[in-house]
Amino acid sequence: MSVLNLSEDMVECPLCMEPLEMDDLNFFPCTCGYQICRFCWHRIRTDENGLCPACRKAYPENPADFKPLSHEDLQRIKQEKRQKDAQRKQKVTENRKHLANVRVVQKNLVFVVGLSTRLADAETLKKPEYFGKFGKIHKVVINHSTSYAGSQGPSASAYVTYQRAEDALRAIQAVNNIHVDGRTLKASLGTTKYCSHFMKNQQCPKPDCMYLHELGDESASFTKEEMQQGKHQEFEKKLQDQYLGNPASEKNRCGEYWSEYSSPVVLCFNET
């Protein structure tokens, strides 16, 4: 009796459900052929009734069928396992290739562009008179690249991560299209892509990596072509309706609130 021709997965002991050690692959302690690991066999013989769980016969002093693996067998099994692991990883990588073209909308992430130098500071944006007024912020990342500046001249952008999705949506409603420091701010939900290590089925070495390491919400996932068609904006509009009800009334309320007072703290983004 032998299980040297390994199946797709390693053989498990039916009692402890642990994968059989290589030395256990040819271990059949009972004449009925019921295979268990040597640990369970020893436990049954020393701590329990000493009977085979399958046929209920008493185990003999020595296993009925046990032929230790030769060095050549061990090396062959190890090589087969390495090959199967490599094939499995390759299959996962192939199945994830299309994710390179996918972006996932993050419901709690605000992407704002058009920030002046005065506002392009993470600690400043966290303050209660700025984005901090809408809810608890987890993280702020500033991007000083001017690629989003358009015709407004040099400006920065920022990713503001809230702990709650509804806080991010309220921030977008209040901030989008307001004029600050001679610039028009544009705010929307941010998107992220999949980590290259995740797509290769590898462990990411960066503890603070901002990209995705697991499959994102399918309803929030869009290809670059779909984003060019505005599908992600339609998704954001649905979220606004879902979390905040009528976006227009909320926008008007925020606008009235900001224009009603003259204090820089209350006005938030107005120049000081």
From TrEMBL:
**What's in the GO CC field?**
CCR4-NOT complex; cytosol; nucleus
Q: State where the protein is found.
A: Cytoplasm; Nucleus
Keyword list (alphabetical) reads: Coiled coil, Cytoplasm, Metal-binding, Methylation, Nucleus, Phosphoprotein, RNA-binding, Transferase, Ubl conjugation, Ubl conjugation pathway, Zinc, Zinc-finger
Q: Which residues form the RING-type domain?
A: 13-56
Q: Which residues form the C3H1-type domain?
A: 189-216
Where in the chain are the C3H1-type zinc fingers?
Answer: 189-216
Pfam families cross-referenced by the UniProt entry: RRM_1, zf-RING_4
What does the protein in this record do? Answer: Has E3 ubiquitin ligase activity, promoting ubiquitination and degradation of target proteins. Involved in activation of the JAK/STAT pathway. Catalyzes ubiquitination of methylated RBM15. Plays a role in quality control of translation of mitochondrial outer membrane-localized mRNA. As part of the PINK1-regulated signaling, upon mitochondria damage, ubiquitinates ABCE1 and thereby recruits autophagy receptors to the mitochondrial outer membrane to initiate mitophagy.
- The name this protein carries in UniProt is CCR4-NOT transcription complex subunit 4
